[in-house]
Amino acid sequence: MVTIRAERLGVALGRRAVLADVDADLAPGRLIGVIGPNGAGKSTLVRALLGLVPLSGGGVRVDGQPVARLSRAALARRIAYLPQGQTLHWPLTVERLVALGRLPHLAPLSRIGEADVAAIDRAIEQADIGHLRGRVATELSGGERARVLLARALAVEAPALIADEPLAALDPGHQLEVMALLRRQADAGALVVAVLHDLSLAAGHCDRLLLLHHGRLVADGPPDRVLTADRLADVYGVRAWIGEVEGRRLVVPISHHG
C-alpha cells in the first residue's frame, strides 16, 4: 500500500505560479480524479507528486518519506506512471514494449524471469491488447498505442498508479473499459490517480475528485459535492445538466456563459 501527501505544494515556471498551496492526502483503495480546465495545473500536479518538477514551496511525502529522498527505482516500484502524449520512436513489438514495465524490478543486465513474464501477461490481458501482442508498436493507431502504454504501466504491478489523461485518443467504448479497469485496480487496494477531462466519466467512476483552477485546489471530495452547477459555472464557465442514469452520475455541458 502506498500513501501520498502533498503539503502546501507550489510549482513555478519562471515568475508564473503554476500551482500554489495544494494540500492533499491520497490513500490506497481509491480512484481519485484530477480535473479542471486547460491550464489549471493538472499535469503539473501529478508530476510534482512524482518528484519530476522542482517545487517552489511545500513538499510531497510518499509513505511518510520526502519524495526527493527516494531513488527513482524505488519510487518506480511503488508508483507506476503513465504520462500523457508519449511518442514511440523504437519499432518494438507490443509485448516487448509492455515488458519495459518490469524494468524497476530488474537488476542491471539481468533478464526477465517467470514472475515478470506472468506480470506482462496479466497486463496485456487487463488492457485487452492480446490481439496486438506481436504488432510493432510504432505502427499502431493512437487508441491502440494508448492502451499498450497503459499495459506497460500495469506491468509494473506497483501498489499505486498515476495516469495523466489515460483516455486520450480512445473511442467511447474503450474509454469506459479503461475507467472500469482503473476502478478495478482501486477496488483491489491500489491508489489510482487519473487526470481526466470527461466530467461524466470522472463523476461516474471516481471516489474522489480534486478540482484545480488557476493552480489552486478549489474543491476536494466526492463527485456529487465537487461537481455542482455553481462550481461548473465558476470554474468551467458552463451551464450543465447534472443527473443520474442507471445509477451513474452524469454531467452534460449545455452552454457556455461567454
Automatic annotation (TrEMBL):
Job description of the protein: Part of the ABC transporter complex HmuTUV involved in hemin import. Responsible for energy coupling to the transport system.
Domain ABC transporter: 4-239
Species in which this protein is naturally found: Edaphosphingomonas haloaromaticamans
Domain of life: Bacteria
Recorded family membership: Belongs to the ABC transporter superfamily.
Protein known as: Hemin import ATP-binding protein HmuV
Enzyme Commission number: 3.6.3.-
Enzyme class label: hydrolase
Keywords tagged on the record: ATP-binding, Hydrolase, Nucleotide-binding, Translocase, Transport
PROSITE patterns assigned to the protein according to its UniProt record, in alphabetical order: ABC_TRANSPORTER_1, ABC_TRANSPORTER_2
InterPro entries noted in UniProt: AAA+_ATPase, ABC_transporter-like_ATP-bd, ABC_transporter-like_CS, P-loop_NTPase
One of the record's GO molecular function terms: ATP hydrolysis activity
Lineage summary: Bacteria, Pseudomonadati, Pseudomonadota, Alphaproteobacteria, Sphingomonadales
